[in-house]
Amino acid sequence: MTIVTLSGVSPSARAASAGESVALVKVVGGLRAPVDLGAPHRSQPDRLYIVEQAGLIRILVRGKLLARPFLDIRRLVRAKELAGLFSVAFDPNYGHSRLFVVAYVGRDLDLHVVRYRSRGGVAMPGTAHELLHVAMPTKDTNNHFGGDLAFGRDGQLYVSVGDGSTPPAAQEADSPLGKLIRLDARADAPKPVLVALGLRNPWRFSFDRATGNIYIGDVGAEAWEEINFVPQGADLPVNFGWPRWEGHMRTSLPSPPLRTPPTRPLTVYPHAKKGCSSVVGGFVYRGRALPTLRGRYLFADFCTAEIRSFRVEGGKFHGLRTERVGRIDGLFVSFGQDVRGELYGLGYTYERSQLYRFQTTP
User: What are the CA-CA distances from residue 306 to residues 70, 283, 316, 326 (Å)?
Assistant: First the structure.
């Protein structure tokens, strides 16, 4: 069993934990370039679905990987550098509807959001129905695709789309690039609704289960990584300012006029002086196993694998800086939640990657 202890828990958290600390414990290894973790709400409490970049979704049952994949679309997916199968989201009524959605980069190097139906515990490839096709202006695997998916409290599907390495498009209202979009995933021809714009490469976003607030990790360009925030009930769309703004910094990049005043990030952190920096958005923890983290938003950096947290109350950021929670060895690509709200993390390499679970240890 691999245990990675997380350091730097705040004094108040230490007191609340009565001598316990938070650790990342290995659940399963042998994964190849895992990028996302999904779980149907309530209908399958003992199953997790692990997304691998090449185009596989694997089933984990009580800590054991099943030999048969849930979905295999490797023939459709272009998997290289920043391209591949990105994410899976299960319909809130999955136990009855058996509908789920995936986002991936196709052989055409465009972003595809596709709905499927499952039967007998596996996906039915013949039920594929494309909900959204985003043409990428730059045909390159090292591109800003976005590609995260999540269902909101309203039952609608939310999709993050990168700017396609074309920064001005993030401010163009008629372009899906650099946006957070809402869709009716049950419709055959859903009309996209704009939730947020002015994003560069929103790799991971999530909803707070308790409040419905949206947190977006947006990968920066030259200087800053940022966490953006859309409170429940906000006037939409929210404009986060890219490419005119990066973090709290005004850029010299060309940008169309901003139609609405920009909303500043909830928090930012600077790029590393050496090496790379790339933010990985996470979740507000609402489970029961980790009392020291309850109500805190966790996020990470892909390159340093350092995990941090902060708290938002009343729509306001509490604390002048993020608190360091810890780090793992290797690259940290994504967080995940099970149906109980317990938290997981995915290490990333092309071979022998691991899925970790956050838990308390003496």
Answer: 31, 15, 24, 6
